[in-house]
Amino acid sequence: MERDGFISYSHLRDRQLAQALQRGMHELARPWTRRQQISVFRDTTSLSANHDLWSSILGELERSRYFIYLASPEAAASRWVQKEIQFWLDNRSPERILIAVGSGTVHWDPSAGDFDWSRTTALPRMLEGVFRAEPLWVDLVEVRTSQKYSLRQPEFRSAVAALAAPLHGRGKDELDSEDIQQRRIALRLLRGAVTVLALLLVTSLAAGGYAWQKRGEALDRALVSASQALAAHSMELADTDPRKAAQFALYADEVEPTSESARALTRAMDANSGVARHLQGGLGAAASYTGSGGEAATQVAVSGDGSTLAYFSDLGGEAGRDREVHVYDIREGRAMKDLRAQWPLGGGALELSADGRTLMLEAPYNRIEFWDVRRAKPLRTITASEGRELAQVSKRLHAYALSGDARWIAATYRRPGDEETLWLTVWNVRTGERVDHRRAGGDLRLSFTADSRLLRALDTSGAGLSTWNAKTRQWKNAGALPDIPTEDRSVTLSAGGAGTALFGSTDTAAAELWDLSAGKRLATATGSLQRAALPADGSGSVVAAQGRQVALFDATLRRPRTLGSFEWPVKSVAASNDGRWVAAGSGDGAVSLFAVHGAGFQRGLPNAGRLKAGELAADGRIAYRSGPEDTELWAVSDGEGGLRRLGRIPRPMRASDMAVAATSDGSRVTVVDEGMFSTWDPRTGKLVGEEKSFDYRSEPDQGLRLFYLADDIHVVTAWDSGIHLIDTRTWNVKQTLLPDDSPYQLLAMAGDRRTLAAVESTAGAVHVWRWSSEEGFEEVMTGETPPSSRNLRVAVSHGGEKLASVDSDGRISLFDVGSGRAVLSSAVEEPGLREVVFSRDARTLAHAFSTDTRSGLEFWDAGSGEHRGEWVLGAPAPSSAEEPSLQVVPGTGSDVLTLDSAGTLLGRSLDLADWRAQLCHIVDDPLSKADYDRYLSDLAVGAPCRA
């Protein structure tokens, strides 16, 4: 069916406006006897459920006569909208592009005969120079602001008529008059039919309403069931295929947000915590060509500076995949132009220069191609030997190395007529000159040093290590290595020729890490280690494949940290020289990029003092490190500030029977120690005012709490004679709360420093007060926690909306302060300090846990108390059993901050919307047709990551 128009728009920005435009153009001048006179396409309403979204859109574009671009800055930046515009420019006349400006600005420059791109924000730059004269465009900014999308509104009607007139082939005024005439005819007929319809209305409404209600209930049940099924499958896939786990979790949340979909999103975030981008999904099938061994020849390469990734997967012609080398700009987070290069059957060598500008690719047969990555143009081809006469197994480079500056290439290979001999050659890439050529003399592995001056050649038969000097063009024998493993192993040399090598494991022998310069073994691994990369960052870390997983090992080949998993075994691994970026490809063609120090799921924050877990105060707002004579102090900053140093005070602090609190700007710090109150200026280290002693009786296992209020003058603390509100200028007690029960009160203060909560540790009575400078504390809620267990911790959300307490059995009681409603959640499932914190938006509750082998965060829905799951963070073990390995405190927005025993301070969002956005960033592909049909065949569900 031919379409009269195609609406291209940003789904995130203009979904409602686009829907109104489509409806308005269909209704304008429509004869009362017809449904509509023209057909305008808008993908969310005109497409049936289809897993191949772009193919469906492409078909609609080909059938459309006019292209209607709903302009906005978000649409101009959308890659989907840009693809739609590019297709139209390649295949249709720009004279049939109509523009409706929903937001942003559009300015035409008559003198230049083009848009004024310095002032235009709502159009993509691909439209620069396209139009010979000013195109038809209408301004809908005011209409969008007022959201009055009715043909009865003059502004909206005028804009719709202007856009619809070319589609009807009529003038705007003529079309508007026709619409008025049709409406008058319809009105006369409507009045005549009203009387008859009124008689039928009562009967039909009862039956129709009942049927509609049942239909709605059935649809709701179907959506919930589909969401739960998708979420369950996502959880099943998390350990084996994190990419698909993210897809299914996103679809589950898109179909119907449920507690199951929230848990699936949590698990998917954990499984993909190290993923920067899933660049290519696997086919889940064997390669389709002979001799592949059933697995695709997937190859990846990462430039030394971590700027560029290149990859290919040879799945054979029947798999429908092209045979191109794909390039990805890691820093910009975008795909670059593909290289139309060819590699041998079953794959071949692939390597990038240190700056990512030059790519080396093995081509059929024993040929080496060099490409300019930025321009996607071939530079040179070097032929190692004429390989067509060789046996199939010999039509490959045996070993190879590209210098970091892309000046030298070294390779070992075989020649026709002498297939038993390996030859070693070094070429000048810029000239193609062969600068060194000789018999290899053994089974060599090659690597250039970081400065590109030396080529290292390791003879794996034990003959030793040799180096070739690029300046003198001479070889030097560094000595034999008789003890290195000589079995048939995979061998990986360190990046930049640092002098270490990993000998992969076999069925009977473990993997070994060697220092080749010293000729000694550094470490032996447990388990299977095959394909690997050794970054040149000096840490001694190793990135290696373990079956279907990619893991990061320390210098002792112990304590592996899993970066990611694949559905099929890993075929190729590469890393940047600093070890920050790791790429891997699997046997079914999947390719993923990993960020060793965390992707968008977390943000590193400043911690110049290298404070560690355990040095944060109980309220999480201040940190201190006490020495024999003084104490240094830091405050937890909002935003990206991390831990901000406040200064020092000339007195030590003991962990027991003491507490500390700081004003909001950190200019004053109040300390209470064994009943003695004092205020200090940490910037100067001087005492402010006089000290004050209060009668004090310590309660076992209770711990003091001290909080500043919002005026930065008063503090509050639980004392044996009551909860005291104290003026720090005079040390006068201004108000006392619960004078008879205070010795056993657990206190918590909201982040806004206005809401105070107290939970009686044994009886479980709950009290919440709201403070104002005029009235002091006023009680706003009372309640009780479940009996029979001792309460250990209490937390209040930033704005005082929610309260949580944890008892000795690990049960969490949640209270809504406004309504007083209480919810008992499931128990804390992992051991820890029983500390819990709310996200700043009060929607999520988090708990830090740690064991001898793992640490991380657990999450609950703060409204329903439902357990959402956990993230395993892998924090290092503390130096002593008394110290925690991980602490968690509230951050800004929906964030929480975690501080581990190594001093790493990270911010992590707990907002489900942020999780969805992050998962869409790493994998925005729609479900496969088979998966869509299995779970959503009877439901119209759009792709969750459509921009």
Task: Describe it.
By secondary structure, the chain is α+β, with helices and mostly antiparallel strands. It is 19% helix and 35% strand. It is globular, with a radius of gyration of 34 Å. Residues 46-51 and 317-321 have low confidence and may be disordered.
Strand-helix topology:
Elements: E1 3-8, H1 11-27, E2 40-41, H2 43-46, H3 53-63, E3 64-71, H4 73-77, H5 79-91, E4 97-101, E5 108-109, E6 114-115, E7 137-139, H6 141-146, H7 154-168, H8 172-237, H9 242-255, H10 259-271, E8 275-280, E9 297-302, E10 308-314, E11 326-329, E12 334-335, E13 350-352, E14 358-363, E15 367-372, E16 377-383, E17 399-402, E18 408-415, E19 418-428, E20 434-439, E21 444-448, E22 454-459, E23 464-469, E24 474-477, E25 491-493, E26 500-503, E27 512-515, E28 520-524, E29 532-533, E30 542-546, E31 549-553, E32 561-565, E33 570-575, E34 581-586, E35 591-595, E36 603-604, E37 622-626, E38 631-636, E39 643-649, E40 658-662, E41 669-673, E42 676-681, E43 686-693, E44 706-708, E45 714-719, E46 722-727, E47 733-737, E48 745-749, E49 755-760, E50 765-772, E51 776-784, E52 791-796, E53 802-807, E54 812-816, E55 822-824, E56 832-838, E57 844-850, E58 855-861, E59 867-872, E60 886-890, E61 895-900, E62 905-909, H11 912-922, H12 929-936
Parallel strand pairs: 1-2, 1-3, 3-4, 4-7
Antiparallel strand pairs: 5-6, 8-35, 9-10, 10-11, 11-12, 13-14, 14-15, 15-16, 17-18, 18-19, 19-20, 21-22, 22-23, 23-24, 25-26, 26-27, 27-28, 29-30, 30-31, 31-32, 33-34, 34-35, 36-62, 37-38, 38-39, 40-41, 41-42, 42-43, 44-45, 45-46, 46-47, 48-49, 49-50, 50-51, 52-53, 53-54, 54-55, 56-57, 57-58, 58-59, ...
